[in-house]
Specification:
Blueprint lengths: L6 E2 L23 E6 L8 E4 L4 E5 L17 E2 L8 E2 L4 E5 L4 E5 L9 E4 L5 E4 L9 E4 L10 E3 L11 E4 L5 E4 L6 E5 L3 H5 L8 E2 L1 H4 L13 E4 L5 E5 L2 E6 L4 E6 L15 E4 L2 E2 L7 E5 L6 H8 L8 E6 L7 E5 L8 E4 L5 E4 L2 E4 L6 E4 L4 E3 L9 E3 L11 E5 L5 E5 L19 E5 L13 E4 L3 E2 L4 E7 L9 E7 L2 E3 L2 E3 L2 E4 L2 E10 L3 E8 L10 E9 L2 E2 L3 E5 L1
Parallel strand pairs: 22-41, 36-46
Antiparallel strand pairs: 1-12, 2-34, 3-4, 3-39, 4-7, 5-6, 7-8, 9-10, 10-11, 11-12, 13-14, 14-15, 15-16, 17-18, 18-19, 19-20, 21-23, 23-24, 24-25, 26-27, 27-30, 28-29, 30-31, 32-33, 33-34, 35-37, 37-43, 38-41, 38-44, 39-40, 42-43, 44-45, 44-46
């Protein structure tokens, strides 16, 4: 039996300070970029927003020294590290959105290309990695002091999980799917019987579908796209193929057609995917969207003669409730590989970061795509894409983007080099942190932007919820909706666990009076089931005339 043990490190780290950054009101319809920090010490390849408005960011430990030191000489000693056995630098930071400050965190085992999810109580569970970290589970409990840090459980996982995907389930567990040469799934936490019999792999379940998705020696079935569906089953997309599985009985319940074009979308061909918003005001019809990727021979061409094929310019949508689902294809204004798809509070999807040619991997891409594109899923075909303002910072391999509560998109990372390298390379390691403000934050929309002034912080399934809000200029004919968004664990162009639910309206907007501002209420109900919205913390937004309020944290239970 594998011995499980807990390594706890409680450190008091001095925060690195700078003045707070107030979200900008942009002046145009193409959004605006804002540099938050020139150097946060690491180049994050993983990010997770917690419900105290702090963002956990981390890289990998076998990369050599970072640019931020662990305090009090609390160095990491790892005889298995292939680069640096004694490392006195941090490979994780905790960033506070409200104060624009960050502090180093301590990781002891290798988190390279790992995965994560947030439990119903708000704890970040982070799984797998490389070398001494491939069987490790790590947790981070949110705190508002300077004491919280990573807690590590080496040897917890049944199988080595490197390039796997995590999804929170309706019962509060996390399913961990795939990984390099791992054609199976397992759960966190494992059951008591599984825990004591894990030496016979009883807690790992073979998924034959994963076995048949690699193209010979090319592993383009890493980081599967996994989405929880409203019926409780899982959508899994790998390479060009997808299925719906009943994970409780380890059965494929529906085989779906290959995405049109036959160009791979999984790592290292690295497209991105979202489950489009679920609207409980009408019949819920789950629809998955996959965008970008690389041409089928792109990875081989790079390794053979350093030829960088143009990235795939298409997106595919598939409605899984159809009797015979099929892919509806669209063409993006800009081809993109390694893009991040982030659901915005108004239901649009921003596609950000990435390259115009090549694949994921060290020095495998060229032509950075610096312009985000916003996709409007409810518009008519051929009117769904809007091109945004470019950034001046290339965001290539190992970059990421997440939504934060005020409606901005936080962007960090980019290190297409094997180690931290700042000179004599075409695309140096990047340590800068920036934010993109979408067009709904323009000053022209200020009068339409609602502000939530009161609501219950606990949202119960099917129970009524009153949201009170103010807005300077209420439009009587405008649609008002209340939405919740689960924050994603983002790495390698994949936002794990990201989902939006539009809450069902019970009573329309009512004017209730005027003190300093005109005040209104709307009554909605909590999500109908845990399959629609698994229990946990969500950002709640009220959207008026397409303009979202700043978000409020609620706990769905």
């Amino acid at each position: 039996m594998v011995i499980k043990f807990i390594l706890i490190t409680l450190l008091v780290f001095a925060a690195i300070t700078t003045k707070p950054v107030i979200p900008l009101e942009t002046s145009g319809l193409e959004g605006e970029w804002q540099l938050l920090h020139e150097n946060i010490g690491i180049s994050p390849m993983h990010m997770q927003l917690l419900h105290n408005d702090k963002v956990v960011m981390f890289d990998r430990t076998d990369i050599g020294p970072s640019n931020i030191t662990l305090p009090f000489n609390l160095c990491r000693y790892d005889p298995f590290d292939s680069v640096l056995q004694k490392d006195c630098t941090a490979h994780s930071v905790l960033y506070d959105i409200r104060t624009n400050m960050f502090r180093p965190l301590s990781i002891r085992t290798d988190t390279w290309c790992s995965s994560g999810a947030v439990l119903a109580d708000g704890t970040l569970v982070q799984t797998g990695g490389y070398n001494d970290g491939d069987h490790t589970v790590r947790t981070m409990v949110p705190c508002d002091n300077e004491f919280c840090d990573w807690i590590e459980f080496p040897g917890y996982l049944t199988e080595p999980r490197w390039f796997s995907t995590d999804q929170l389930l309706p019962d509060g567990r996390v399913i961990i799917v795939g990984g390099r040469r791992q054609f199976s799934y397992e759960f966190y936490p494992m059951g008591l019987a599984d825990y004591f019999s894990s030496f016979v792999n009883s807690s790992s379940y073979l998924l034959d579908f994963l076995k048949g998705t690699s193209d010979g020696v090319i592993e383009n079935n890493l980081y599967p796209f996994v989405h929880l569906l409203p019926d409780g089953n899982l959508f899994i997309f790998v390479n060009v193929r997808s299925v719906v599985i009943d994970y409780k009985h380890n059965q494929v319940v529906k085989y779906l057609p290959a995405i049109t074009g036959e160009d791979p979308r999984s790592y290292p061909y690295s497209g991105s995917s979202v489950l489009l918003p679920l609207d409980e005001n009408k019949l819920v019809e789950p629809e998955v969207m996959v965008c970008g990727g690389a041409q089928r021979d792109a990875y081989v061409d790079i390794k053979r003669d350093r030829t960088f094929a143009r990235a795939v310019p298409t997106c595919g949508r598939i409605k899984l409730s159809d009797e015979n689902p099929s892919w509806e294809m669209e063409t993006m204004p800009l081809g993109r590989v390694m893009g991040d798809m982030v659901i915005l509070p108004n239901g649009d999807v921003i596609i950000i970061n990435g390259a115009g040619s090549g694949t994921a991997g060290w020095d495998n891409a060229r032509d950075p795509v610096t312009r985000p594109v916003i996709y409007h899923p409810n518009n008519l075909p051929n009117t769904r894409f809007s091109v945004m303002q470019p950034t001046s910072i290339p965001r290539l391999y190992n970059s990421g983007a997440i939504l934060i509560t005020d409606g901005r998109v936080l962007v960090a990372g980019s290190n297409p080099n094997q180690f931290y390298n700042f000179t004599n390379v075409e695309f140096p390691t990047d340590l800068r942190l920036e934010a993109f403000s979408p067009p709904y934050l323009t000053k022209e929309n200020a009068a339409l932007r609602p502000v939530i002034v009161s609501l219950d912080e606990v949202v119960e399934y099917k129970k009524q919820l009153m949201v009170t809000f103010t807005v300077v200029k209420y439009l009587k004919l405008a649609k008002v909706t209340v939405r919740i968004i689960a924050p994603s664990f983002t790495t390698h162009s994949l936002g794990m666990n990201q989902r939006m639910v539009v809450l069902p309206e019970v009573r329309n907007v009512s004017f209730v009076g005027e003190l300093l501002d005109r005040t209104y209420t709307i009554e909605v109900a909590g999500p109908s089931t845990a399959e629609i919205a698994p229990p946990g913390y969500y950002m709640l937004y009220l959207v008026h005339a397409g303009v979202p309020s700043p978000g409020k944290w609620v706990k769905v239970q």
